Amino acid sequence: MESSTYFNFFSERKVLLIILLNSATIFLQGFELSKAFSFWLNHFDNFFTIYFVFELSKNIKQQGFSNFWQSAWNRFDFVLVALALPSLLYWFGRETGNQGLDFLLIFRTARVFKFMRFFRFIPGVQSLLAGINRALKASVLVIVTFLIYNFIVAIIACSLFQDLSPEYFGNPLSALYSTFKIFTVEGWYEIPESMMANGNLTIFQEVGIKFFFIVILLTGGIFGLSLVNSVFVDAMVMDNNDELEVKVDDLNKKIDLLTAEIRQQQTSKFSPQE
């Protein structure tokens, strides 16, 4: 009876409820609150950490460490709990005036990732994660090519416009960011317009700047980024397409068998009897 009650305390519904309450606590701690309210929020947060420690221990005891570690979700939970543990040392040590443990509070940032455990309860999440993994593998070459092209264009833009627009192309790192910003097609026209407004340029220089950024937009933004998206999405739904193709093949086989059976019946019906 006690064992049943113990495991029921860590049922999926209760774990999900604790995750939601912990996420709400993390959200509230981002506001300027009274000392009393913050005090109780900190205690609640540490309670949640202790709860997850016992829940992790229960899973390891129930499954065995080797079986437990085979699951990616279990490894993720283990890392989150391990990162949250140092903040408990500060919680217990502050009563004794041990202020040297203040730096351990930085590990509390790991708490926000606990909310990601919520995804394990979403139906079909394993299939979704498998699709993402498959899409990443299928599109890695396209992504690398896109990044290389971004790097090449950034170096060229840095060489051409370093003096004209140091804000956007003053160094290779700024040029990389500015080029990627143009590739995303978000406010791409603001950069060339700012460049032309900063200096006294001839009509040919302005036309050249406009042409350069239009080419970047077409090749990197409209064509390049669209290609990356299309390859990624196609790989994501590939499993669904394969399943649909199998169903269509099975349906065609059944139709062929049914057609052959109908023809056989018609042949035996109209054949001369002995």
Automatic annotation (TrEMBL):
It is found in: Membrane. The chain crosses the membrane at residues 15-31, 37-54, 75-93, 140-162, 211-232. The keyword Membrane applies. Residues 241-268 form a coiled coil. Keywords: Coiled coil, Membrane, Transmembrane, Transmembrane helix. Its main location: membrane. This is Ion transport domain-containing protein. It comes from Persicobacter psychrovividus.
